[in-house]
Automatic annotation (TrEMBL):
The Aminoacyl-transfer RNA synthetases class-II family profile domain, residue ranges: 253-550
Textual note on the cofactor: Binds 1 zinc ion per subunit.
Places the protein is found: Cytoplasm
Name of the protein: Threonine--tRNA ligase
One of the record's GO cellular component terms: cytoplasm
Cofactor field: Zn(2+)
GO MF: ATP binding; metal ion binding; threonine-tRNA ligase activity; tRNA binding
InterPro entries: aa-tRNA-synt_IIb (IPR002314), aa-tRNA-synth_II (IPR006195), aa-tRNA-synth_II/BPL/LPL (IPR045864), Anticodon-bd (IPR004154), Anticodon-bd_dom_sf (IPR036621), Beta-grasp_dom_sf (IPR012675), TGS (IPR004095), TGS-like (IPR012676)
Residue intervals of the TGS domain: 1-71
PROSITE patterns for this protein: AA_TRNA_LIGASE_II, TGS
Enzyme class name: ligase
Organism: Candidatus Korobacter versatilis
Amino acid sequence: MADNIKVKLPDGSIKELPKGSTALDVANSISPRLGQAALVAKIKPSSNGNEFRLVDLTAPLAEDVELRILTEKDPESLEVFRHSSAHLLAAAVLELFPETKLGHGPPTDSGFFYDFYREQPFTPDDLAAIEKKMAELAQQDIPYRREMLSRDQTLADAQQHGDFMKCHFIEQFVQPGEQASFYKTGKFVDFCRGPHIPSTGRIKAFKLLTLAGAYWLGDAKNKQLQRIYGTSFYSKKELDAYLHQMEEAKKRDHRVIGKQLDLFSIQELAGPGLIFWHPKGGTIRKLMEDWMREEYIRRGYSLVYTPHILRVETWKTSGHEGYYAKNMYPPMEMDDAFYRVKPMNCPGHILIYKSDLRSYRDLPQRYGELGTVYRYELSGVMHGLLRVRGFTQDDAHIFCTPQQIEDEIVGCMDFALAVLKTYGFDQFQVELSNWDPKDRANYAGTDEQWDLAMRSLESALKRSNIEYKLIPGEAAFYGPKIDVKLVDAIGRLWQLSTIQFDFTLPQRFELEYVGEDGARHQPLMVHRALYGSIERFFGVLIEHYAGAFPAWLSPTQVAIVPITDRHVGYAASVESMLKDVGIRSHLDARSEKMNAKIREHAMQKVPFILVIGDKEAETGKVNVRTRGKEKTEDMSAQDFVAHLKHLVDTKATSL
RNA sequence: GCUGGCGUAGCUCAGCUGGUAGAGCAUCUGAUUUGUAAUCAGAGGGUCACAGGUUCAAGUCCUGUCGCCAGCUCCA
């Protein structure tokens, strides 16, 4: 029959239906329950393409297709569902504030947003009203209907209504002569590619979360729009679980834990983005630095130190005075010369390199420094330890020959992985950034240099067996790079490790080495930082461990709790045993009840609490309460010391 | 830097429509000598971020500044 089409389903079966039937018809013909559960469909037309694409359930099928009906079980449905939720939000906003102009409203990883333009700002009360209106519209179970309209007509309409953003989108996404797809939800009409879920009634659990500014087209020179963020789920239960999870994540926030555990502070009197490391935080930092320095030495780096301020002439030579000046603190004058606080360590290391004539036999030179730098960051971007104005980089610069570069990069990658492993990170993203081929003119360095650099970066990643994302256009103008990023408590991504080529500085400073051929050559230069910034790394660590640091990093490793004053003597002898092997312990001899002391030390997340009473004093034992464990254990003081020492020496990430 | 929100004791927060501040925890002092997450009693502690303004009267209203929070932008 010519008017029928064949629909092939995932199980291989084929259904024949009249032409123009919809995916929903197919779903209903399989079972009414599937029809109800269906949210969206995926089709692969027989005539063209070998890729499935998402379509509305109500889209008429014009030819033979392979079809998949998607329900809540399919991850792709959630995006469509949330996109439809964004439309519901926009519909509610237009009902309440008809003068509002629409931007766009996509789904995000955890929900959706919609951008609006309106002279008057939305208030939190407005948000509540909008949410209520959304609930009403959902209640009415309004279908999402797709309509194809003429480009010219809709453009003219949009222009007439002053919908400047929609005009822009239509002009950009619809070719002249083509039709533009719109989605209607009751009175609400939005230019949109779709697809959407069948109707608003499916959106049963949603919540508007925050109100924020967003620049039109992401450009600070443009108008600022009002962005309303929200999230939606298939059920109230999932929504509640999500909100609960967000609450829990907030408890892991390094700013909250930093205060609770008295690790660091930022003080208004001193200035924003400047970190005070308190004694406990300082202890952890010292341990992080010690380990890093040991690794530097083990891996053939030389430790160097460079000044915090350098004459502006250095910054002119490096080019920072030109292109980085807006991020630098202003010059200060001394003895008729101007000095600037360093925003980077590289020029200092270069000056060390340049202090002597280098032979190819001297290379590679690896200069490492825990160098504190200061950068001016916009006032709105500071964020606890994760984005600051003064920070210490574990910064190293490698100067080497082209023949050595691949091994050097492999060495860097190996080092970077050792860092991640030591701190127990298993979730991270690696990005390899190349230049933007459309924009070659804006990059420094020769084609050969870029080629060599990209090859060595890629092969290092492959040799290290690391999955990575190649991102064209993300490279700095001075060279390609590898970045390692980690997520914070609420899912934000932060860059830590970076391995970057620099083709400009060796040239600007006229670096050279004498090759085998007796001629002068320019060395390759690589910047690499693995913690990135010690402040940021510490912030991510706090969240990663939720403040419960592994034994080797804990500021106080053992709290000793004598039950009464008469046990203090024996407790002190246990403490001195611990101190003898370098364990950080605290004898809590206050006249408090044992329970109160245990509670306090437990809240401070001390890994081990030793309770000492008559029983222990008589037998030379200690009663060990291990963080996170229900049961306490009795063991000899010697055994406990050995156990803890082992955890520390192996940098065990669990107790 | 931009948009919106916020800023009360060391910390977490209360303080209705303006009538010159309060709780819990923490701190200090005393008592208490305790077996696995808070012993009891008493005391001290605030120019309500800062600077102006309106008012008979401002923590509360207005303006500016600083800082914090969320997002945007930036991130050589």
